[in-house]
Each structure stands twice: as structure tokens, then as C-alpha cells.
Amino acid sequence: MTQTPEPPIHDLDTMLCFNLYVASRSMVMAYRPLLEPLGLTYPQYLVMLALWNAPHPPTVKALGEWLHLDSGTLSPLLKRLEAAGHLKRHRRASDERELEVTLTPQGRALRDQAADVPRLIGERVGLNDRQTRELIGLLRLVIGNLDEQG
Asked: Any idea where the HTH marR-type domain is (predicted)?
């Protein structure tokens, strides 16, 4: 008696959601050995990148919007980075309802220590500049489409 194999429920390898999930996890894992010596987790590194690249000290709200993080996720990250001496949170003089985030000298110095991280990750990923730009463009399109739909 020949048994017919059950069809797969979903072929995970061809599903966009699964491939994005695995790529995201793999990317975070690639960062781990580079960030551990700096005392940063990947989410903390993203916060620091945002602060290093901000033209002026952002509010917590603006930082959360930029990083696509809600306050329940962002606040503990900021508390840990503040406890480590990398940043300060304080009320804005112009509007005390707004909490502003500024880098400390230690936080600014950490930028130099992390300077090689993007290059090392780029080498690990193995895409050329054109491929990287194309992938970022496609990911931004996906993010925009999903954000539009709520």
C-alpha cells in the first residue's frame, strides 16, 4: 500500500515573512560579537546610532518614532544606557512636558569605538553597494506598505 505524502501546510522557504524573520535574527546574531566588547545589545546600538546621527538632541517621543519603538520598549533601553553613562534624559527647558535625550561625553566617545561595526557587518553580509541599496529600497517599500495598512 503506497501512502501519499501530506502536502506541506506552508513552504516556509518561499514565504516572505519567514525569510524576513530569519534574516533579522541572523543579522542580530552577526552584530552580537561586535557589540559585546562595547557593552551594547543590538537594540541599544540602534538607539546609540540614532543619537550619534541626530542633528540635535531628540525627545524620547521623536526617538521612538524614528526607531519604530513604543515607549514600553524604548524606556528600558534608555534607562540601561543612562545607567551605563552613555546618555542623559532631562526635561526640555522650552517645554517641560518633553523629555530630551542627550549623549554624554562617554556616549559620544563610544561612537569612535563602534566605527568599524558597519563595515564589518557589510563584509559579513556580502552584498555590493548596488545590491545593498536595492535591498534597503525594497525593505522600505515593505515597511511603508505595512505601516500604511496599520
From this structure: 13-144
Residue type, 136: I
Q: Is residue 47 part of a domain?
A: yes
Residue 78 CB neighbours (<10 A): 22
Domain count across the chain: 1
Secondary structure of residue 89 in the 3-state scheme: strand
Q: How far apart are CA 71 and CA 48, in angstroms?
A: 16
C-alpha 68/C-alpha 65 separation (Å) is 5
CB 74 within 8 A of CB 67: yes
pLDDT (tens digit per residue) in 112-138: 999 999 999 999 999 999 999 999 999
Confidence of residue 39 (pLDDT cuts 50, 70, 90): very high
Q: Which domain holds residue 85?
A: 27-105
